[in-house]
Amino acid sequence: MRGLQPRRVVCYPGAMTVRTRYAPSPTGYLHVGGAWMAFFNWLFARHHQGVFVLRIEDTDRDRSTEEYERSILEDLRWLGIDWDEGPDVGGPYGPYRQTERGALYNAAAQTLLGRDAAYPCYCTREELEADRQQAAAERRPPRYSGRCRNLTPDERRAREAAGRVATLRFRVPQGRPTIVVEDLVLGQVEFDPADLDDFIIQRSDGTPLYNFANVVDDHGMDMSHSLRGSEHLSNTPRQVLIYEALGWTPPRFAHFPLLLGIDRKKLSKRHGDTAVREYAAQGFLPEALVNFFALMGWYPEDGRELFTVEELIHRFRIEAVGKSPAVFDIQKLSWMNGVYMQAAYRQNPDRVVDLVIACLRDQGLLDGEVTPEQRAYVARVVAIMGERLRLPRDILTYGDFFFRPQVAFDPQAVAKHLSGPDTAKVLRHLREALAATRRWDLPTIEAAVRGGAAHLGVEDKAVIHPLRVALTGKTVGPGLFELIEVLGKERVLERLDRAIARAVEPPASTPR
Ligand code: GLU
Question: How far apart are CA 79 and CA 285, in angstroms?
């Protein structure tokens, strides 16, 4: 992918190098929403032949784990999202883990203190909690009281002497005019600084808080753009103030719309907001996910839906990202997966066959060492499933009969097509016709079945439906002649014998 040379599109003044980042907190597996943002940062960087950085925001030490960090890297790689700088590959702006960048935060904190843009706050947890409760009782939004805002050096010393350890609070400048952000997606967004209260930027143990660390790192890593979810919009004015206080220019912001479920409610597990690795385990293909991610929020002019990654890189325009919420439509993702499954099968059948084998094993329909013959059989089944196979598990819905020793009959299908007075006669005749064939290919099979209908003086469908139910147990599935060919003569004749016996002497439970 990186070897590819998309047309250079320069649309930023001075043709600066575009540098974007994805900055996950390793407090869980990579979820769809995170992967979505990672993807757009990556896409934007690749479109502009820029640099994509992975930064681990692990300042929450209690919840961050190495295992989650590893899994996030793994899942991004699986999606085909590669980074030029990051904790594993290094780079000129490292380290790329916030826990390793303490000195940089301390230096910035000292600068802010020196400029009186931040001050030590000695308020205890209890004091702050009491303030909050009072605000709630008075139905006011909770705001920092400003208790430590203007302490004299003596007052500070007294608190320290009493054993209080300070946090560091950012001093929101008073009387500052409206904060204006030119957002690449939302357009001009304005924030009233009067709505902000002084906020903590460093804990008493010296670790930085999100807004502060994020600014120090985005500046320190020379980020040109910050593409992120709208849930961070409320952080943006605070970050802008920190940039200003440090005399730094903020990156260009682009806040992407919220991700909603198909019912327009906040995306949750119920809608499919699960870990990317869950999707992988279900047999979703990374190329389908990536194509699907691109269309959540970005609207290519011509309404086209299927794109290769190279096309996405080439065509992506941040100006075409919508402001209204993006909808995560799992049905659409499944459809797309089906399209990519077929493409994958054409390119490298083994890849799809492996996924289907894993699913069959999981369901106990295959076990032990899979022989080359079994593999070939699965491959033939996959080939005739065509579009029905959107996910590997669709093999269970439409093709379980290929792998079950006995057909599992759908009672409705039996009632409809295997319970007529002539069923046994029809099946017997078809059995004979199929048994008499010398070859076992599509034209021969089709001729035997259609010839059977003609011989019996009935329409083709009067033999085709019972035959399908006798062999598969259901009314839907791959083409009849194809499935007969793949099942093989021996299985077909054996299943017909059973169905004939059944038609003559139906089991008690079968509805008639
Ligand atoms: N660590 C933040 C998150 O995971 C990063 C937000 C940002 O991109 O600024 O949401």
Answer: 8
458 within a domain of the structure (yes/no): yes
- Cα–Cα dist 489/68, whole Å: 51
Task: Give every residue of the chain whose pLDDT is below 50, as ranges.
Answer: 1-11, 13-14, 512
CATH number of the domain that residue 498 is part of: 1.10.10.350
- Which of 228, 235, 242 has most ligand 1 atoms within 8 Å of CB, for mutation? 228
The answer to whether the CB of 291 falls within 8 A of the CB of 312 is yes
Atom 5, ligand 1: which residue's CA is nearest? Answer: 23
Domain extent for 335 = 271-400
Q: Is 269 known to be catalytic? A: yes
Which one of 365, 381, 400 terminates a domain? 400
24 alpha carbon to ligand 1 midpoint, in Å? 6
Among 400, 420, 454, where does a domain finish?
400
Q: Which atom of ligand 1 lies at the shortest distance from residue 228's CA?
A: 8
pTM: 0.89
- Helix, strand, or coil here: 191? strand
Pocket test for ligand 1, best of 210, 230, 240 (most atoms within 8 A of CB): 210
Q: Select which of 269, 323, 425, 461 is catalytic.
A: 269
298-340, pLDDT tens digit by residue?
888 888 999 999 999 999 999 999 999 999 999 999 999 999 9
Whether residues 390 and 278 share a domain: the answer is yes
- With respect to residue 143, please indicate whether it lies within any of the assigned structural domains: no
